Amino acid sequence: MTSPVSFKYFKTSPEIIRLAVMLYIRFPLSLRNVEDLLHERGIDVSHETVRYWWNRFGPMFAAEIRRKRIQQLRAFSKWKWHVDEVFVKVNGKRHYLWRAVDHEGEVLEAIVAKRRNKQAALKFLRKLMKRHGKAKEVVTDRFASYRAALRELGATEKQQTGRWLNNRVENSHLPFLRRERAMQRFRRMRSLQKFASVHSSVYNHFNQERSLTSRDTFKLTRAAALSEWHQLCSG
């Protein structure tokens, strides 16, 4: 866990920094949108300050969220994985964001690659298994590289393909793609990888599956998630 010294040399309170980072990562807002929203709340900061805060503290917050959730959900995340890749433009060139979610829509891993082939699929699946173990089932589309990569890993029998079986991960792409449009694309591959990793952790933290629970339950879980966010990097 990161210590309170992370905020030591900042005149702005940690609560304001957490709020600015949450607004920028969680919602499809630009840096200037966040600046305006903070100004309405009587907080006068520039959009470049928001940019610095997100670059400095976003990965810290994401790492702490990821550490806690992996410990809590390690057994459940091995049941079924949904794996897919989505096209993303980086400085005008096509790249591929490989993503995996579990049966509940929890984002397990997100990796950016220049290629969409067996080597990229193998690298992604190995990193996924290193962090989360081996799943009982792996749902993919009919892209041949998945079968080739799973064959090399000795897990061909775990693969499932079907027309609608992978809707879980297809739908999970949407929040990130909305966020990408608000950012007007990415200029560097490293920036895309960094934001994808942070965004997935924050999305997991606040994703309450509200359509599957009652209103009272949703309000309780939402309040708990916000309370936990306020405690990040507080020692």
UniProtKB/TrEMBL annotation:
Q: What are the record keywords, sorted?
A: DNA recombination, DNA-binding, Transposition
Q: Which GO terms describe its biological process?
A: DNA recombination; transposition
Q: Which GO terms describe its molecular function?
A: DNA binding
Q: Which SUPFAM superfamilies match?
A: Ribonuclease H-like (SSF53098)
Q: Which residues form the DDE domain?
A: 79-208
InterPro entries under this entry?
A: DDE_dom (IPR032874), IS_Transposase (IPR052183), RNaseH-like_sf (IPR012337), RNaseH_sf (IPR036397), Transpos_IS6 (IPR047930)
The source's superkingdom equals: Bacteria
Q: Which Gene3D superfamilies match?
A: Ribonuclease H-like superfamily/Ribonuclease H
Respond yes or no to whether keyword Coiled coil is given for this record.
no
What does the protein in this record do? Involved in the transposition of the insertion sequence.
What is the recorded name of this protein?
Transposase IS66 family protein
Name the species this protein comes from: Ruegeria atlantica
Organism lineage string: Bacteria, Pseudomonadati, Pseudomonadota, Alphaproteobacteria, Rhodobacterales
